[in-house]
């Protein structure tokens, strides 16, 4: 069977090669003609601020590069409905009034065609594939603006939660301090006729009042630091990232993600499978005698014997 298949291949070699080349090329060309989409890209520079207060969400505490940190946050935000709704509403104010199906379609389109890629320690890119490049620029700008607001909101919210918790601790520490001071003053007032400088009870009350005062001052310092952090969220946000290249249309690049390349690959695989089937069918149905084995198979002859082939000339 192998000899017959090889014989069929060599018999139709030029036709097989021509089909193998032409069909994928035609499929790739059709893919290029049908694909009218382009890629709008913005390049963003991420950095780690020289000074960062003690944020509750200090995302720069890890060893990851600034580009990896910011790009990772943006990827996660793109997958959320809240973020995509904010972006699409900024692009078209009528978006909230669209039907549910239309909103779902636009949200899926945004999440499918947006790509965030790091290109170094500080640089990362935001790409959006769309047939409407003018709208694509608006979408990318809206995403960058929404990204800044969302990151700022995340930090602000976490710092606010920390402030609330610290405020409760400060209030509790303030009451404990007042109670301890009041106890020491009451004891001193009750023993004015006596010397209390060496009184162990009084000394214990004074030590307790001092300890409660130190605890209150420590919590108050933490609360003041948290308030400073909340102010710094607004002032330092611009140092976390900024756009270095405004949205622009990327020139066409031939890569594995291009639909035309996918069409070409599928066509190539299909042609190979079809040609393999063609060779198999022709080899099975071809009645010509092509080898000694065919004679034995057709005539059902049995060999009477065999002799070794001589390697010497007579």
The overall pLDDT average reads 79
Q: Which term fits the overall shape?
A: elongated
Output the structural class.
Answer: alpha+beta
The low-confidence runs, each spanning 5 or more residues with pLDDT under 50, are: none
- Relative helix content: 55-70%
Biggest pleated sheet = 4 strands, antiparallel
Strand fraction: 5-15%
Characteristic key phrases:
314 residues, alpha+beta, four-stranded antiparallel β-sheet, 9 helices
Write the topology of this structure.
Blueprint: H1 2-11, H2 13-34, E1 38-46, H3 66-78, H4 81-91, H5 100-113, E2 114-118, E3 123-130, H6 133-190, H7 200-240, E4 241-250, H8 259-285, H9 292-299
Antiparallel strand pairs: 1-3, 1-4, 2-3
Helix pairs in contact: 1-8, 2-8, 4-5, 4-6, 6-7
Structure characterization notes:
The chain is α+β, with helices and mostly antiparallel strands. 65% of the residues lie in helices and 10% in strands. The chain has 9 helices and 4 strands; from the N terminus they run H-H-E-H-H-H-E-E-H-H-E-H-H. A 4-stranded antiparallel sheet has the order 2-3-1-4. The radius of gyration is 39 Å and the shape is elongated. The chain starts with a helix and ends in a 15-residue tail after the last helix.
């Amino acid at each position: 069977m192998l000899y017959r298949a090889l014989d069929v291949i060599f018999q139709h070699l030029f036709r097989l090669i021509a089909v193998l080349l032409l069909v994928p090329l035609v499929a790739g060309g059709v893919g290029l003609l049908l694909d009218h989409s382009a890629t709008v890209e913005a390049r963003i520079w991420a950095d780690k601020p020289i000074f960062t207060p003690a944020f509750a969400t200090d995302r720069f505490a890890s060893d990851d590069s600034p580009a990896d940190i910011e790009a990772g946050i943006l990827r996660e935000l793109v997958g959320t409905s809240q973020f995509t709704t904010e972006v699409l509403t900024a692009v078209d104010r009528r978006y909230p009034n669209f039907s549910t199906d239309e909103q779902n379609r636009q949200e899926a389109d945004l999440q499918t065609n947006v790509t965030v890629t790091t290109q170094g320690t500080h640089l990362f890119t935001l790409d959006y594939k769309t047939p409407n490049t003018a709208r694509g620029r608006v979408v990318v700008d809206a995403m960058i603006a929404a990204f800044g607001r969302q990151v700022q909101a995340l930090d602000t919210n976490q710092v606010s939660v920390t402030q609330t918790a610290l405020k409760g601790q400060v209030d509790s520490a303030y009451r404990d301090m007042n109670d301890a001071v009041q106890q020491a003053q009451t004891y001193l007032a009750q023993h004015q006729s006596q010397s209390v400088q060496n009184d162990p009870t009084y000394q214990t009350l004074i030590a307790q009042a001092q300890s409660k005062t130190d605890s209150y001052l420590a919590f108050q310092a933490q609360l003041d630091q948290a308030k400073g952090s909340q102010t710094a969220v607004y002032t330092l946000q611009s140092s976390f990232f900024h756009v270095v290249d405004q949205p622009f249309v990327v020139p066409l690049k031939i890569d594995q993600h291009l639909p035309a390349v996918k069409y070409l690959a599928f066509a190539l695989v299909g042609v190979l499978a079809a040609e393999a089937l063609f060779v198999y069918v022709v080899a099975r149905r071809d009645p010509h005698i092509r080898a000694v084995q065919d004679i034995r198979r057709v005539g059902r002859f049995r060999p009477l014997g065999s002799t070794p082939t001589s390697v010497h000339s007579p």
